[in-house]
Amino acid sequence: MTNPAFAPTGTIDVRIHPSRAEMGRAAAALVATEMRARLAGGAGLRMIFAAAPSQAEMLEALVAEPGIDWGRVTAFHMDEYIGLAEGAPERFALWLRRHLFDRVPFAAVHAINPGRDPAAAARAYAAALDAAPIDIVCLGIGVNGHLAFNDPPVANLADPEDVKIVELDATCRQQQVDDGCFAGFDDVPTHAITLTVPRLLRADRLVCVVPGAAKRDAVRRALQDPIGAACPATALRQHPRVVLFLDAEANPDG
């Protein structure tokens, strides 16, 4: 359901559901509807996906949605750790392979591979993204209010770069442990490649999925705080077509 209490904060359409499963199904249904409508126009579709446990329910439901011509969809993802082994299960590209990329027949999947020259990898990925417009971004919000790996307070909401190397802050690294992605804080890499905030906001449609009580304060700040680097997710209010899906635990008004 839509929560009218958040209407004055900006253009974000906030939809709150009782459980993570219901939230995921509702978000997937919206994404699927957008995909079918755009594909019906005859053109291909270019999408960016977040890799995080918060997205699992939505991706599971999206894979099951009928009537999507995945063979005309090109996929990207929004961030990747630097310094992990090629086959490390914690890598975001491999997480998305398990949950999405290997489960439906995409036309193409562009994975971020930092390799031995992360700066060159970032430039190449920016070029691939820039080859044509991005239609849909499926994203989340971090506990610290980050978008992708654009952490406060250093995120640049007017970043001239599209993809860059960043240092992860302590809260962001701890979230990866709390989410069960790493055994301990010191196992989490200190640096990553990320799409920047302006690159994400250049997409035509943003669908943001944010479950869990740990995200409640970040959601509140995203909707109510002044737009700025202290909470990068506030930048979502600058985009005209954002839908934010929450479960009951993430609802700051609950």
Automatic annotation (TrEMBL):
Gene3D superfamilies: 3.40.50.1360. Pfam families: Glucosamine_iso. Keywords: Hydrolase. GO terms for molecular function: glucosamine-6-phosphate deaminase activity. It comes from the Bacteria. InterPro entries: Glc/Gal-6P_isomerase (IPR006148), Glucosamine6P_isomerase (IPR004547), NagB/RpiA_transferase-like (IPR037171). It is an enzyme of class 3 (hydrolase). Its EC number is 3.5.99.6. Residues 19-240 form the Glucosamine/galactosamine-6-phosphate isomerase domain. This is Glucosamine-6-phosphate deaminase. The lineage of its organism: Bacteria, Pseudomonadati, Pseudomonadota, Alphaproteobacteria, Rhodospirillales.
